[in-house]
Amino acid sequence: MKSKASAPGKVILFGEHFVVYGVKAILCSINKRVTVTAEKIKEDKILVKSNIGNLELEANKNISEINSPLKPFYYLANKIIQNKNTGIIITVESEIPLGVGLGSSSACCVAGAAAISRLFSNTTKDEILELAIEAEKTIFQNTSGADCTVCTFGGIMEYDKENGFSKINSEPDFHLVIANSNIEHSTEVIVKDVKSFKENNEDEFSKLCKEETKLIEDVLELLKENKIKELGEKVNQNQKYLETIGISNQKIREMIQIGIKSSYGVKITGAGGGGCVFALTDDTNLNKTINQFREKDYECFSVKIDLQGLNTF
Ligand code: MEV
What we know:
By secondary structure, the protein is an alpha+beta fold. The chain folds into two domains: 2-170, Ribosomal Protein S5, domain 2 (2-Layer Sandwich), CATH 3.30.230.10; 175-303, Alpha-Beta Plaits (2-Layer Sandwich). It contains nine helices and twelve strands. The strands form two sheets. Strands 1, 2, 3, 4, 5, 6, 7 and 12 form an eight-stranded mixed sheet that branches. A four-stranded antiparallel sheet has the order 9-10-8-11. The termini are close together. (R)-mevalonate is lined by residues 12, 16-17, 19-20, 101, 143-144, 146-147, 187, 191, 270-271.
């Protein structure tokens, strides 16, 4: 018997990093997916196959001794097959570029938790999310949980650490042009850098958190009214805050200058330090924005909001 699940990647529209300190963030899932297939096998082992390599290990290894980006799958499989007298093979297919802030690891954790757990029982989305966040913690201990949450439920949502997620019931009609700096980043390292910035600049950081909170209140209104140009101004404003906390660099600044020529706003999405920026457009400036990045040899593609979230087959 096979169990299959797919989960979307995500973009943080507003509030990355500040969300770690309790500010609200706004995220949306995107129409690029990870699909995971899980199947029981007779051999007593856990096997993960993916386009970034394979992992083959016996069950019950100490998770801290595993040094592989596929570790969350091992964690999930090992936890779920306890006392079940079976091995497992997991196959991962991804449309989401890795390690650039588009939620590839969260989508893997969510689709992995769903595909593996549903081989044995009819787990709910809430149970799957809980498993996925545990699995993500094996590679990023301090995750806020926001990424896995939006990959599970899809659409556009607000999230804060204290109150969790709440779906925003609007379907704003925009495109996001995602351009990749091709600089891989470690979310964990960048989150630590921001922590140092905060510790060295407590007053400034607390002022930024207040400004980000106000910006997000404004954004929630603009989303309801589908005011894309005004949202673009908020995108640019949020990018300034991200510059201040030190997660940008020369290449990102160059990409922002390219995107700003024709889109309504451009910012880093996710941890920064590399990764991706998105440019906010509608139908009128979508192609021009894509072409401007491509003319400068940046890998780029456009996405829309995914409304489905986790899907199980
Ligand atoms: C990473 O995609 C988002 C951060 O805000 C970290 C987190 O929320 O866990 C940088």
